[in-house]
## 1
Amino acid sequence: MVVRAVVFDIGGVLEITPALGWDTVWADRLGLSPAEFYERTFPVWRAGSIGAICEADVHRRLGDLLGLAETQVDALMSDVWTEYLGSLNVELSEYFRGLRPRYRTAILSNSFVGAREREHERYGFGDITDLIVYSHEVGMSKPDPRIYELTCGRLGVRPEEAIFLDDVEPFVDAARQAGMQAILFKNNEQAIADIDVSL
């Protein structure tokens, strides 16, 4: 099957996003165990990842759930975004940019409300690809098979005509089950070589 499109994940692939431990730091500040902090805040993170809540409501709900003042919530979310955005994987982003116009390209990301604006401002992702599918904008997330189908549909290709790169194995497996040619990202050299062999 001829490849017509290439789809990349963001976090851990186009962005280098090591865990910075912000959740442990904030749990400790609030006198909570990491498990308690996660349990209290998970509904907010989940709602934000599928667009069921706006950014203003994220801030309000975190303040209510954790007993934080507005300035404290702002500080917490600043820490969240610092880890979320990480730093640009320059080599891989340049490789991805170079796939156009020979191939249609897309970014498919499990995201959070506010990600498009922040990532475009910092990294210009909207300028290097034909399409970005954010989970918070489409109301579904990987590994839901519908999000892979949606991405291929918006690209105008059949799943088997698309290569998908992600660093999370269950998401790669789900893409394969949806019919895409899927590659597990381990490092730049391996990912580029595996894609080049498949093109």
## 2
Amino acid sequence: MSFTLVAGSSVALAAETPIRLVALGDSLTQGYGLPQDEGFVPQLQAWLDAQGVKVEVINAGVSGDTTAGGLARMDWTLDEQVDAMLVTLGGNDLLRGLNPATSKENLSGILARLEREGIPAMLAGLPAPGNYGPEFQLAFERMYIDLAGQYDVPLYPNFMQPMTDKADAGASFADLMQDDHIHPNAEGVALIVEGIGPEVLEFLRALEEQPS
């Protein structure tokens, strides 16, 4: 896996100042329905702090945002220094049954922009339920794999892995969800962070190993 850091990133790492990791996403990233310190970004920040990583995780989650929305706000998202980006979009596309080909095109636009800017990216995917049909399910899940390969970025396949694990075991995961049955509660977020945290850590450590 190879990364090209922007000048600001190299300076930040050389000076041992925190890496600015922007989490670009929707309500799952933004922390919908949760106290400020219990959302995904603050819990991920706390987890990474505990690992001794000098990183500032920036919350760029917008509730209700689709992949198109994420692409549309790239200009102002990149208006301040961004050393790396975690892209966690696709949930609202899935809820609305949007064409996976369109979602893929939008995510490709985001990753292509980051590639042009020399900003390392990590992609987090989501599983698709079967209610839209097997073709939709395959296309949606495949788009993350294809894009990770195309842009040579690390992929965490299932942001909601703890919930999937319980479902696969034949157990209810209602205890990890808010009353809307869409958004995780604080305990659910903690498990999500436990799952994705090591992958984010590896991603950040790879950046530190890059020559300035």
## 3
Amino acid sequence: MKKEIWQWVGIIAVGLILYTTGLHTEVIGFAQRGLLATGIMNPNVNKEKLSSNEASYPKADFNLDFVNSKGDHVSMEKFRGKAIFINVWATWCPPCIAEMPSINKLYNEVKDENVEFIMLSVDDSFEKAKAFRERKGYDFEIYQPNGPLPQMYQSNSIPTTFVIDADGNLVMTHKGMANYTTKKFKEFMRSIQ
């Protein structure tokens, strides 16, 4: 009986330490990467469906301004004519943390192509988001909204990923975490440029 009590005290103590230091988010995110490895959370992309239904996709709203990690003001209009990968995330969100390595890998594989990445932090403190990116060594630029998000990009779930093709059509919305390094998703990104 005493042994069980001490085990529970130890478990609770570890939980409190993780929570008070903020490391619980990263620990949960790390565990969720195992779920991503199974492939059941991959975004649903279908190139054949994309080409046959091109006219049915809504036009993307380019009325979005943001500030990058260097403090520069950027308009989404600047990226018109490119494929755009928009990911809405936060440092306090374990699923966001879980998918970041796959997004960074995708970024490094397609960054020299006609693709732009908008990693849009919705943290209360953009400084915290910048410190997180720096600590993790991610290569993509991060942004914060410079005003309200257009209705098209509002979601009750984070992470949420939006993909816009080079013609300005919103061709994918994925709510929740995903593995973006699959061959199928990379082929999809290349097909919409």
